[in-house]
Amino acid sequence: MTQNPSSHGEIGHAKAVKEMFSGIAGRYDSLNHLLSLNIDKNWRRRVRRELADVLERPEAVVLDVACGTGDLSIELQQNASATVVGTDFCRPMLAVAATKSDGLARRIPLIEADGMNLPSASESFDAVTIAFGLRNFANWSNGLVELHRILKPGGRLLVLEFSAPVLPGFRQLFKFYFSYILPRIGGMVSGSRGAYEYLPDSVSRFPDQRGLADLMRKVGFSDVTYRNLTGGIAAIHVGVK
Ligand SMILES: C[S@@+](CC[C@H](N)C(=O)[O-])C[C@H]1O[C@@H](n2cnc3c(N)ncnc32)[C@H](O)[C@@H]1O
After folding, report:
1. d(C-alpha 221, C-alpha 213), whole Å
2. Which of 32, 77, 80, 232 is positioned for an S-S bond with 165, CB 3.0–4.6 A?
């Protein structure tokens, strides 16, 4: 896929995002770890720690939306008593997740669905997570409304997403890496330069820490907080229904 999903309407955007991830599904994990120098693993671990109290409850159900190849779902399931379910609308990404999930002691149910229109009853989940997924939705507010709908009252949403580095010098350095180096390496290894040009482009259009917190409040989340990761390259936002 060479076109930028952001240049389409909402339906076209979803289709283009799905095609883009279908094209890189086989290389997605190795590139993630290479391009982030494995720091992405720490970030997912932080999400698990934030949710520790829910994950230790045997009756709790946690939905990992836009789970892709399943790395966060698997991380959440480590030593968890709760049930973790993964969902994504891109079948080839889920196919990779299934190969990993098959090898686990407790298989993670994987559901093919659009995160903006989930086949779940309202108030079904004790917690919902979404890692590097919301930014790719065609409409962030409507996506957040949908994630709010499926949470039980008192349930928590955790959003792990790229954000805005907080230190000025580091911000410039990171921007250079993210905008010039990463698309070249990502393009060479995956064969899809477009996907790795879309990444910095989509991050630059996505709200920063405060902007995302405001958006979450606007759609009805309360007690919204965020924690910067690696100097603000990424952040975990938490909101309560
Ligand atoms: C960057 S990957 C993140 C995957 C995984 N959460 C992780 O941490 O590696 C983004 C994922 O979001 C999925 N996605 C994007 N928009 C979606 C939507 N509207 N509904 C469901 N999944 C979506 C893509 O298919 C892709 O698998």
Report:
1. 9
2. 232
Cα 42 to its chain centre, rounded Å, is 14
Residues 6+ positions from 122 with CB-CB distance below 8 Å: 149, 150
pLDDT-based confidence at 2, cuts 50/70/90?
very low
Strands 61-65 and 125-131: parallel
131 C-beta closer than 6 A to ligand 1: yes
- Asked whether 233 lines ligand 1 (CB < 6 A), one says no
Residue of 230, 233, 225, 232 whose CA lies nearest to 50: 225
**What's residue 7's pLDDT?**
63
Is residue 159 within 8 Å of residue 237, measured between CB atoms?
Answer: yes
Q: Does residue 104 carry a pLDDT above 50?
A: yes
Q: Greater confidence, 4 or 46?
A: 46
Atom of ligand 1 nearest to the CA of 130: 6
pLDDT for res 3: 42
Q: How far is the CA of 169 from the centre of ligand 1 (A)?
A: 31
Q: Is 92 in the pocket of ligand 1 (CB under 6 A)?
A: no
Atom of ligand 1 nearest to the CA of 143: 19
Q: Give the number of the atom of ligand 1 that is nearest the alpha carbon of residue 93.
A: 27
CA of 118 to the centre of ligand 1 (A): 14
Residue type, 201: D
